[in-house]
């Protein structure tokens, strides 16, 4: 009985602090849930954006039109912003460089290969 009285006294003495804790716990849980959802949403958006860039890099927008070199160069550059995909991006860019050896007129090929080399070097330094 004495222990019960001590608990009751402690609860009464700390009622203000306990009420603050009881308010903070749901707020903290709500914040955690919110940021978890935002993080998952951002991860999904980055996944979709990355795959859209890869598609733009290797597929023609219109099958009856040639690839747009400047778009490919811009996409290769933009892939540097996806650090979480660096290992696979490096493999993709190296593979494309090998398969694009005979791609287009000499001057255009040089620009594309130069951007490939720049991005490959950049990613290698960051890994």
Protein architecture, described:
There is one protein chain. The protein is mainly alpha-helical. It has one domain (2-126). The chain has helices spanning 2-13, 15-58, 69-78, 86-99, 106-126. Helix 3 runs parallel beside helix 5. The radius of gyration is 28 Å and the shape is rod-shaped. It starts with a helix and ends with a helix. 6% of the residues are buried. The mean pLDDT is 91.
Give me some keywords for this one.
mainly alpha; single chain
Total strand segments: 0
How would you describe the shape? rod-shaped
Element-level helix/strand string = HHHHH
Strand content: under 5%
Counted by DSSP, the helix tally is 5
Sheet with the most strands, sense and barrel status:
none
Radius of gyration using CA atoms only: 28 Å
Helical residue percent band:
over 70%
| Average predicted confidence as pLDDT | 91
Name the poorly predicted regions: none
Distance between the termini: 65 Å
Structural class: mainly alpha
Total domain count: 1
Summarize the structure.
With 127 residues, the chain is mainly alpha-helical. The protein has helices at residues 2-13, 15-58, 69-78, 86-99, 106-126.
């Amino acid at each position: 009985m004495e222990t019960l009285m001590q608990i009751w006294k402690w609860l009464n003495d700390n009622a203000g602090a306990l009420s603050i804790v009881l308010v903070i716990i749901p707020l903290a849980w709500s914040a955690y849930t919110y940021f978890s959802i935002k993080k998952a949403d951002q991860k999904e958006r980055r996944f979709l954006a990355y795959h859209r860039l890869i598609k733009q890099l290797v597929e023609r927008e219109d099958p009856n039109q040639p690839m747009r070199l400047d778009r490919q160069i811009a996409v290769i550059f933009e892939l540097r912003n996806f650090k979480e995909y660096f290992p696979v991006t490096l493999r993709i860019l190296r593979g494309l460089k090998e398969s694009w050896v005979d791609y287009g007129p000499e001057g255009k090929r040089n620009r594309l290969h130069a951007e490939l080399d720049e991005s490959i070097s950049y990613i290698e330094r960051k890994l």
